[in-house]
Amino acid sequence: FSQLNHVTKEFRLQEFDALGKDQPKAAIYFLAHTSNKGVKKLLKALTALHKFFLMDFNYPIIIFHEEDFLPHIQHVKHHIPASIYFQRVKFEVPGFVSRNVPKKVCSKDIGYRHMCRFQAKLIYEQPIVRDLEYLWRLDDDSFLLKPIEYDVFKYMKHNQYMYGYNRIT
To answer: Which of 10, 65, 130, 161 could form a disulfide with 69 if both were Cys (CB 3.0 to 4.6 A apart)?
Structure first.
């Protein structure tokens, strides 16, 4: 799954070619952490997502990860019976930044800043999401607590919504 074009082609063929016109082209995505704690949280989030949404509304999941996540792919893939696609991303300081970037700024480390940049810009440049109408971003600590009894993507498409969010703390 490290070949970007292969994943993108497979993803489109399997998930969207047979959909009806009313079915939104949508996916749910995570940006995975490679620590054992991060993988455990991701598995817990995937379990809740499957139990409370995917069992009724079968949308694909894309897990973006860095190369050091590769040893966890098979474990995650077999954790729930869902269409899960893995897309490797490489985080690096952008070329237009001409000076050394400190490891920590305002108590946030470079990994956190890479994550923010990915969520704000780089996600939309990923070929695997290019043809999608909707993306649902979930963090590894986003746990659905009860069933969602309607298709959120169809709801958004039917109501011509472009963006939605919900934050519960």
So the answer is: 65
